[in-house]
TrEMBL record:
Keywords in alphabetical order: Aminoacyl-tRNA synthetase, ATP-binding, Cytoplasm, Ligase, Magnesium, Metal-binding, Nucleotide-binding, Protein biosynthesis
Family matches, as InterPro entries: aa-tRNA-synth_II, aa-tRNA-synth_II/BPL/LPL, Phe-tRNA-synth_IIc_asu, Phe-tRNA_ligase_II_N, Phe_tRNA_ligase_alpha1_bac, Phenylalanyl-tRNA_Synthase, tRNA-bd_arm
Major site of localization recorded for this protein: cytoplasm
Chain positions recorded as Mg(2+) binding sites: 250
Gene for this chain: pheS
Species the sequence originates in: Jiulongibacter sediminis
Protein name: Phenylalanine--tRNA ligase alpha subunit
Protein backbone atom coordinates (compact mmCIF):
# COMPACT_ATOMS: atom_id res chain seq x y z
CA UNK A 1 0.00 0.00 0.00
CA UNK A 2 2.80 2.40 0.80
CA UNK A 3 4.23 1.76 -2.65
CA UNK A 4 0.91 2.49 -4.29
CA UNK A 5 0.61 5.70 -2.29
CA UNK A 6 4.09 6.75 -3.21
CA UNK A 7 3.43 6.04 -6.86
CA UNK A 8 0.18 7.95 -6.93
CA UNK A 9 1.96 11.09 -5.77
CA UNK A 10 4.10 11.27 -8.89
CA UNK A 11 3.40 13.73 -11.61
CA UNK A 12 5.34 14.23 -14.84
CA UNK A 13 6.42 17.53 -16.29
CA UNK A 14 8.79 16.00 -18.80
CA UNK A 15 9.84 12.81 -20.43
CA UNK A 16 12.66 12.62 -17.92
CA UNK A 17 10.14 12.46 -15.03
CA UNK A 18 8.38 9.61 -16.76
CA UNK A 19 11.64 7.79 -17.20
CA UNK A 20 12.51 8.35 -13.51
CA UNK A 21 9.19 6.81 -12.55
CA UNK A 22 9.91 3.82 -14.73
CA UNK A 23 13.32 3.39 -13.14
CA UNK A 24 11.91 3.67 -9.62
CA UNK A 25 9.03 1.25 -10.03
CA UNK A 26 9.09 -0.77 -13.17
CA UNK A 27 12.73 -1.43 -14.02
CA UNK A 28 14.63 -4.58 -13.09
CA UNK A 29 15.82 -3.06 -9.81
CA UNK A 30 12.57 -1.13 -9.26
CA UNK A 31 10.28 -1.44 -6.29
CA UNK A 32 7.85 -3.78 -7.99
CA UNK A 33 10.52 -6.30 -8.81
CA UNK A 34 11.79 -6.19 -5.22
CA UNK A 35 8.33 -7.24 -4.10
CA UNK A 36 8.32 -10.06 -6.60
CA UNK A 37 11.63 -11.18 -5.07
CA UNK A 38 10.08 -11.16 -1.59
CA UNK A 39 7.27 -13.30 -2.95
CA UNK A 40 9.68 -16.26 -2.88
CA UNK A 41 9.96 -15.99 0.91
CA UNK A 42 6.19 -15.85 1.54
CA UNK A 43 4.91 -19.05 3.19
CA UNK A 44 3.05 -21.33 0.83
CA UNK A 45 -0.42 -20.84 2.31
CA UNK A 46 -0.16 -17.08 1.80
CA UNK A 47 1.29 -17.22 -1.68
CA UNK A 48 -2.08 -17.12 -3.41
CA UNK A 49 -3.34 -14.03 -1.64
CA UNK A 50 0.00 -12.24 -1.83
CA UNK A 51 0.26 -13.04 -5.51
CA UNK A 52 -3.13 -11.62 -6.31
CA UNK A 53 -2.31 -8.41 -4.42
CA UNK A 54 0.97 -8.17 -6.20
CA UNK A 55 -0.59 -8.50 -9.63
CA UNK A 56 -3.19 -5.89 -8.79
CA UNK A 57 -0.45 -3.53 -7.70
CA UNK A 58 1.45 -4.20 -10.89
CA UNK A 59 -1.56 -3.29 -13.02
CA UNK A 60 -2.14 -0.11 -11.00
CA UNK A 61 1.47 0.97 -11.31
CA UNK A 62 1.39 0.30 -15.04
CA UNK A 63 -1.78 2.34 -15.39
CA UNK A 64 -0.15 5.15 -13.49
CA UNK A 65 2.83 4.86 -15.81
CA UNK A 66 0.69 5.25 -18.93
CA UNK A 67 -1.07 8.26 -17.50
CA UNK A 68 2.28 9.79 -16.62
CA UNK A 69 3.41 9.14 -20.18
CA UNK A 70 0.46 11.10 -21.47
CA UNK A 71 1.08 13.87 -18.98
CA UNK A 72 4.74 13.99 -19.86
CA UNK A 73 3.95 14.27 -23.53
CA UNK A 74 1.43 17.02 -23.03
CA UNK A 75 3.40 19.21 -20.67
CA UNK A 76 6.88 18.55 -21.95
CA UNK A 77 6.77 18.97 -25.70
CA UNK A 78 9.73 17.58 -27.57
CA UNK A 79 12.84 19.10 -28.96
CA UNK A 80 16.27 18.01 -30.02
CA UNK A 81 17.56 18.01 -26.42
CA UNK A 82 14.38 16.44 -25.10
CA UNK A 83 13.38 13.75 -27.57
CA UNK A 84 10.20 11.72 -27.22
CA UNK A 85 11.65 8.47 -25.97
CA UNK A 86 8.29 6.76 -26.25
CA UNK A 87 7.90 7.08 -29.99
CA UNK A 88 8.03 3.70 -31.71
CA UNK A 89 11.40 2.96 -33.23
CA UNK A 90 11.83 3.98 -36.86
CA UNK A 91 13.02 0.88 -38.71
CA UNK A 92 16.31 1.25 -40.57
CA UNK A 93 14.81 1.22 -44.05
CA UNK A 94 17.63 3.06 -45.78
CA UNK A 95 18.61 1.41 -49.04
CA UNK A 96 22.02 0.94 -50.60
CA UNK A 97 23.26 2.09 -53.98
CA UNK A 98 23.12 -0.67 -56.58
CA UNK A 99 26.59 -2.12 -57.26
CA UNK A 100 26.26 -1.14 -60.93
CA UNK A 101 25.53 2.45 -59.89
CA UNK A 102 28.58 2.42 -57.63
CA UNK A 103 30.71 1.09 -60.48
CA UNK A 104 29.33 3.56 -63.04
CA UNK A 105 30.02 6.45 -60.71
CA UNK A 106 33.55 5.29 -60.00
CA UNK A 107 34.29 4.92 -63.72
CA UNK A 108 32.97 8.43 -64.51
CA UNK A 109 34.98 9.83 -61.62
CA UNK A 110 38.25 8.27 -62.74
CA UNK A 111 37.82 9.47 -66.33
CA UNK A 112 36.58 12.89 -65.24
CA UNK A 113 39.93 13.41 -63.54
CA UNK A 114 41.62 12.62 -66.86
CA UNK A 115 39.52 15.32 -68.53
CA UNK A 116 36.75 13.15 -69.99
CA UNK A 117 33.27 14.67 -69.82
CA UNK A 118 30.15 12.48 -69.61
CA UNK A 119 27.82 12.09 -72.57
CA UNK A 120 24.63 10.15 -73.16
CA UNK A 121 22.84 8.60 -76.14
CA UNK A 122 19.63 6.75 -77.01
CA UNK A 123 19.08 3.06 -76.26
CA UNK A 124 16.64 2.79 -79.16
CA UNK A 125 18.73 3.51 -82.19
CA UNK A 126 18.80 3.33 -85.97
CA UNK A 127 20.98 0.86 -87.82
CA UNK A 128 23.00 3.82 -89.11
CA UNK A 129 24.38 4.87 -85.71
CA UNK A 130 24.71 1.37 -84.30
CA UNK A 131 26.26 -0.29 -87.38
CA UNK A 132 26.56 1.43 -90.77
CA UNK A 133 28.32 4.62 -89.67
CA UNK A 134 30.65 2.42 -87.61
CA UNK A 135 31.83 0.74 -90.81
CA UNK A 136 29.78 -2.46 -90.53
CA UNK A 137 29.04 -2.92 -94.27
CA UNK A 138 25.41 -3.65 -95.19
CA UNK A 139 24.55 -7.35 -95.05
CA UNK A 140 28.05 -8.08 -93.81
CA UNK A 141 28.61 -11.01 -91.41
CA UNK A 142 30.42 -8.67 -88.97
CA UNK A 143 26.97 -7.53 -87.88
CA UNK A 144 26.44 -10.98 -86.46
CA UNK A 145 29.22 -10.32 -83.92
CA UNK A 146 26.43 -8.72 -81.93
CA UNK A 147 23.04 -10.47 -82.01
CA UNK A 148 20.49 -7.74 -82.35
CA UNK A 149 16.95 -7.11 -81.10
CA UNK A 150 15.17 -5.40 -84.00
CA UNK A 151 12.21 -3.10 -83.44
CA UNK A 152 11.12 -2.00 -86.92
CA UNK A 153 12.25 -2.34 -90.51
CA UNK A 154 13.07 0.87 -92.34
CA UNK A 155 13.08 1.58 -96.08
CA UNK A 156 16.74 0.68 -96.27
CA UNK A 157 18.84 -1.34 -93.88
CA UNK A 158 20.40 1.80 -92.38
CA UNK A 159 16.91 3.02 -91.38
CA UNK A 160 16.00 -0.08 -89.34
CA UNK A 161 15.23 0.62 -85.67
CA UNK A 162 16.87 -1.57 -83.06
CA UNK A 163 18.03 -1.71 -79.45
CA UNK A 164 21.65 -0.61 -79.45
CA UNK A 165 24.07 -3.51 -79.08
CA UNK A 166 26.88 -1.32 -77.76
CA UNK A 167 27.52 2.25 -76.64
CA UNK A 168 29.62 2.98 -79.75
CA UNK A 169 26.54 4.62 -81.31
CA UNK A 170 27.19 7.65 -79.06
CA UNK A 171 30.65 8.11 -80.63
CA UNK A 172 29.02 8.89 -83.98
CA UNK A 173 26.38 11.16 -82.47
CA UNK A 174 29.08 13.13 -80.67
CA UNK A 175 31.41 13.51 -83.62
CA UNK A 176 28.49 14.72 -85.75
CA UNK A 177 27.82 17.63 -83.44
CA UNK A 178 31.14 18.51 -81.87
CA UNK A 179 34.47 19.27 -83.40
CA UNK A 180 37.73 17.97 -81.91
CA UNK A 181 39.30 18.05 -79.41
CA UNK A 182 36.80 15.52 -78.05
CA UNK A 183 37.27 13.63 -74.84
CA UNK A 184 34.16 11.87 -73.56
CA UNK A 185 32.98 8.92 -71.55
CA UNK A 186 29.56 7.47 -72.41
CA UNK A 187 27.91 5.06 -70.04
CA UNK A 188 24.65 3.24 -70.64
CA UNK A 189 22.58 0.13 -71.13
CA UNK A 190 22.89 -2.09 -74.19
CA UNK A 191 21.00 -5.14 -75.41
CA UNK A 192 21.94 -8.35 -77.22
CA UNK A 193 19.86 -11.31 -78.23
CA UNK A 194 22.05 -13.75 -76.32
CA UNK A 195 21.41 -16.71 -74.06
CA UNK A 196 21.54 -15.69 -70.40
CA UNK A 197 24.22 -17.38 -68.30
CA UNK A 198 26.34 -16.63 -65.24
CA UNK A 199 28.72 -14.57 -67.40
CA UNK A 200 26.50 -13.08 -70.11
CA UNK A 201 23.11 -11.35 -70.16
CA UNK A 202 20.78 -10.02 -72.84
CA UNK A 203 20.94 -6.57 -71.20
CA UNK A 204 24.09 -5.13 -69.73
CA UNK A 205 26.00 -1.85 -69.49
CA UNK A 206 29.03 -0.47 -71.24
CA UNK A 207 31.36 2.46 -70.68
CA UNK A 208 32.52 3.90 -73.98
CA UNK A 209 35.45 6.26 -74.23
CA UNK A 210 36.37 8.50 -77.15
CA UNK A 211 39.35 10.79 -77.54
CA UNK A 212 39.88 12.67 -80.81
CA UNK A 213 42.51 15.36 -81.27
CA UNK A 214 45.68 16.10 -83.22
CA UNK A 215 48.38 13.45 -82.76
CA UNK A 216 46.45 11.04 -80.52
CA UNK A 217 48.41 7.78 -80.55
CA UNK A 218 48.04 4.15 -79.56
CA UNK A 219 50.37 4.89 -76.69
CA UNK A 220 47.87 7.44 -75.33
CA UNK A 221 45.23 4.71 -75.43
CA UNK A 222 47.45 2.30 -73.52
CA UNK A 223 48.39 4.86 -70.87
CA UNK A 224 44.77 5.88 -70.37
CA UNK A 225 43.60 2.29 -69.94
CA UNK A 226 46.47 1.43 -67.62
CA UNK A 227 45.76 4.44 -65.44
CA UNK A 228 42.09 3.51 -65.32
CA UNK A 229 42.86 -0.11 -64.33
CA UNK A 230 45.16 1.00 -61.51
CA UNK A 231 42.62 3.48 -60.17
CA UNK A 232 39.78 0.97 -60.38
CA UNK A 233 41.45 -2.21 -59.18
CA UNK A 234 44.59 -1.15 -57.34
CA UNK A 235 48.03 0.16 -58.21
CA UNK A 236 49.57 -3.25 -58.95
CA UNK A 237 47.09 -3.99 -61.73
CA UNK A 238 48.58 -4.65 -65.16
CA UNK A 239 46.86 -4.49 -68.54
CA UNK A 240 47.38 -6.51 -71.70
CA UNK A 241 46.14 -5.53 -75.17
CA UNK A 242 45.48 -8.52 -77.44
CA UNK A 243 45.14 -7.98 -81.21
CA UNK A 244 41.49 -8.23 -82.26
CA UNK A 245 39.02 -6.96 -84.81
CA UNK A 246 36.30 -4.30 -84.73
CA UNK A 247 35.06 -2.71 -87.99
CA UNK A 248 35.32 0.80 -86.50
CA UNK A 249 38.86 0.70 -85.14
CA UNK A 250 42.21 -0.09 -86.74
CA UNK A 251 44.30 -1.48 -85.14
CA UNK A 252 41.93 -3.10 -82.63
CA UNK A 253 42.53 -4.88 -79.35
CA UNK A 254 40.82 -6.71 -76.53
CA UNK A 255 41.61 -5.20 -73.13
CA UNK A 256 42.66 -7.69 -70.44
CA UNK A 257 43.52 -6.82 -66.87
CA UNK A 258 45.67 -8.94 -64.60
CA UNK A 259 43.45 -11.03 -62.34
CA UNK A 260 43.88 -9.46 -58.93
CA UNK A 261 41.64 -12.04 -57.31
CA UNK A 262 44.18 -14.86 -57.68
CA UNK A 263 47.18 -12.60 -58.47
CA UNK A 264 48.07 -14.85 -61.38
CA UNK A 265 47.86 -18.07 -59.36
CA UNK A 266 44.87 -19.19 -61.45
CA UNK A 267 41.23 -19.04 -60.37
CA UNK A 268 37.82 -19.61 -61.94
CA UNK A 269 37.20 -15.95 -62.72
CA UNK A 270 40.24 -15.78 -65.02
CA UNK A 271 39.90 -19.44 -66.03
CA UNK A 272 43.38 -20.04 -64.59
CA UNK A 273 45.05 -17.74 -67.15
CA UNK A 274 45.77 -14.83 -64.79
CA UNK A 275 44.03 -12.39 -67.19
CA UNK A 276 40.41 -11.23 -67.56
CA UNK A 277 38.89 -9.47 -70.56
CA UNK A 278 37.00 -6.29 -69.71
CA UNK A 279 36.43 -4.68 -73.12
CA UNK A 280 37.55 -3.77 -76.60
CA UNK A 281 39.52 -0.79 -77.91
CA UNK A 282 41.43 0.65 -80.83
CA UNK A 283 42.35 3.65 -82.96
CA UNK A 284 39.25 5.15 -84.56
CA UNK A 285 39.11 4.01 -88.19
CA UNK A 286 39.62 6.92 -90.63
CA UNK A 287 36.40 5.86 -92.38
CA UNK A 288 34.46 6.49 -89.17
CA UNK A 289 36.02 9.92 -88.65
CA UNK A 290 35.21 10.83 -92.23
CA UNK A 291 31.61 9.64 -92.11
CA UNK A 292 31.10 11.87 -89.04
CA UNK A 293 32.56 14.91 -90.78
CA UNK A 294 36.05 14.92 -89.20
CA UNK A 295 39.11 15.13 -91.43
CA UNK A 296 41.27 12.03 -90.78
CA UNK A 297 44.30 13.80 -92.23
CA UNK A 298 44.13 16.35 -89.46
CA UNK A 299 42.85 14.30 -86.54
CA UNK A 300 43.34 10.88 -85.03
CA UNK A 301 41.57 9.27 -82.10
CA UNK A 302 41.18 6.27 -79.89
CA UNK A 303 38.04 4.57 -78.55
CA UNK A 304 37.24 1.81 -76.12
CA UNK A 305 34.16 0.04 -74.78
CA UNK A 306 34.14 -1.87 -71.49
CA UNK A 307 31.55 -4.12 -69.84
CA UNK A 308 30.39 -2.55 -66.57
CA UNK A 309 28.99 -5.80 -65.14
CA UNK A 310 32.32 -7.45 -65.85
CA UNK A 311 34.14 -4.70 -63.96
CA UNK A 312 31.69 -4.78 -61.03
CA UNK A 313 31.96 -8.59 -60.82
CA UNK A 314 35.72 -8.33 -60.50
CA UNK A 315 35.64 -5.40 -58.13
CA UNK A 316 33.12 -6.95 -55.73
CA UNK A 317 33.89 -10.64 -56.36
CA UNK A 318 30.42 -11.47 -57.74
CA UNK A 319 30.20 -14.78 -59.56
CA UNK A 320 26.87 -14.50 -61.40
CA UNK A 321 25.77 -11.60 -63.63
CA UNK A 322 22.08 -12.43 -63.04
CA UNK A 323 22.37 -11.19 -59.44
CA UNK A 324 22.50 -7.60 -60.77
CA UNK A 325 19.00 -7.85 -62.20
CA UNK A 326 17.17 -10.05 -59.65
CA UNK A 327 16.58 -7.20 -57.17
CA UNK A 328 17.08 -9.52 -54.21
CA UNK A 329 17.52 -7.28 -51.14
CA UNK A 330 19.79 -9.85 -49.51
CA UNK A 331 22.23 -9.23 -52.36
CA UNK A 332 21.66 -5.47 -52.68
CA UNK A 333 21.91 -4.67 -48.95
CA UNK A 334 25.48 -5.98 -48.93
CA UNK A 335 26.54 -2.80 -50.71
CA UNK A 336 25.52 -0.44 -47.90
CA UNK A 337 28.41 1.88 -47.30
CA UNK A 338 30.46 0.35 -50.14
C1 LIG B 1 32.02 -3.95 -78.22
O1 LIG B 1 30.86 -3.90 -77.84
C2 LIG B 1 32.72 -2.76 -78.84
N1 LIG B 1 31.74 -1.74 -79.12
C3 LIG B 1 33.81 -2.25 -77.93
C4 LIG B 1 34.67 -1.23 -78.55
C5 LIG B 1 34.42 0.12 -78.37
C6 LIG B 1 35.78 -1.59 -79.32
C7 LIG B 1 35.22 1.10 -78.97
C8 LIG B 1 36.59 -0.64 -79.92
C9 LIG B 1 36.31 0.70 -79.73
P1 LIG B 1 32.40 -6.41 -77.34
O2 LIG B 1 31.29 -7.01 -78.08
O3 LIG B 1 33.66 -7.20 -77.20
O4 LIG B 1 32.84 -5.02 -77.98
O5 LIG B 1 31.91 -6.03 -75.89
C10 LIG B 1 32.69 -5.27 -74.99
C11 LIG B 1 32.55 -5.79 -73.56
O6 LIG B 1 31.17 -5.84 -73.19
C12 LIG B 1 33.02 -7.22 -73.36
O7 LIG B 1 34.41 -7.25 -73.14
C13 LIG B 1 32.28 -7.61 -72.10
O8 LIG B 1 32.93 -7.07 -70.96
C14 LIG B 1 30.96 -6.89 -72.28
N2 LIG B 1 29.95 -7.84 -72.80
C15 LIG B 1 29.78 -8.26 -74.07
N3 LIG B 1 28.73 -9.09 -74.17
C16 LIG B 1 28.21 -9.20 -72.94
C17 LIG B 1 27.08 -9.91 -72.36
N4 LIG B 1 26.26 -10.64 -73.10
N5 LIG B 1 26.85 -9.78 -71.03
C18 LIG B 1 27.67 -9.00 -70.27
N6 LIG B 1 28.71 -8.31 -70.74
C19 LIG B 1 28.99 -8.40 -72.05
Amino acid sequence: ESILKEASEWSAKSAQDVENFRLAFLSKKGKLNQLFDEFKQVPNEKKREFGQELNKLKTQIEEKFSSLQEQGNESGGHSADRPDIFLPEVPDGLGALHPLTLTRRRISEIFARMGFNSEDGPEMETDWYNFTALNFPENHPAREMQDTFFIARGKEQKDDTLLRTHTSNVQIRLMEHQKPPLRSIMIGRVYRNEAISARAHCQFHQAEGLYVDKNVSFRDLKDTLLHFAKEMFGKDTKIRLRPSYFPFTEPSAEIDISCFICKGEGCNICKKTGWVEIGGAGMVDPFVLESSGIDPEEYTGFAFGMGIERIAMLKYDINDIRLFFDNDVRFLSQFKGA
